[in-house]
Amino acid sequence: MTRFHLIQGAPVAVALSLLTTAATTAIAKPFTYVNARFGTSCTFPDEVFSITEAEPENGDGQQWSAVDGASLTCSGIYNINNDTPKGFVAAETANTGPGYKITYSKTGKNWAVLSGIKGDKVFYERRLFGKDGVIRSVWIEYPSSLKPKYDPLSGAIAASLRGP
Q: Which residues are 2's β-sheet partners?
């Protein structure tokens, strides 16, 4: 299973959700990122994820960091192994690497969501399995001590994930 982490027009409900969450974290405006290569998009508060990391040479996505140690990646990858949502969750659940534990998973027809612990951080990932042969992903990771701040943001950001 390939692991990858790495915006224009999120639905009104997602924008409102981010703004509602923003009120609890002193954030005012959402930012929408659109990946030129795969058309992957996600919306997030750029006042929280304020540090833009270098874009990979292959242009598959973008990563942002927060000053408190959180990170956000929005990316795409070709589904060369014909992965499915259920197959992805099964493979990740079977991963017994040190410090890695899935605590929540859910799948739909063309999507999967995972959350869990990776070392001393919480992660939340949503993947969309496109009919165009691309898997689009949003990955959010943050220190466990910041769950009250990032849990509400993670759900709203993950819900904003889109592709063509």
A: none
Contacts 24+ apart (CB under 8 A), 127-131: 127/85, 127/88, 128/161, 128/162, 128/163, 129/79, 129/83, 129/84, 129/85, 130/79, 130/163, 130/164
Tokens, residue 147: 């769950």
Domains of the chain: 12-159 (3.40.1000.10)
Average pLDDT over residues 103-107: 97
- % of the chain surpassing 70 pLDDT: 83
What are the strands, taking DSSP E only, across 50-153? Answer: 51-52, 61-65, 71-78, 100-107, 111-118, 121-129, 134-143
Q: Which tokens in the block code for residue 58?
A: 């292959």
- Residues β-bridged to residue 139: 73, 125
Q: Which of the four pLDDT bands, split at 50, 70 and 90, describes residue 15?
A: very low
pTM: 0.82
Angle formed by the axes of helices 12-25 and 147-159, nearest 10°: 170
Q: How many CB atoms lie within 10 A of CB 127?
A: 26
How many other C-beta atoms are found inside a 10 Å radius of the C-beta of residue 22?
A: 19
Comparison of pLDDT for 28 and 122, the residue scoring more: 122
Any bridge partners for residue 76, and if so which?
A: 136
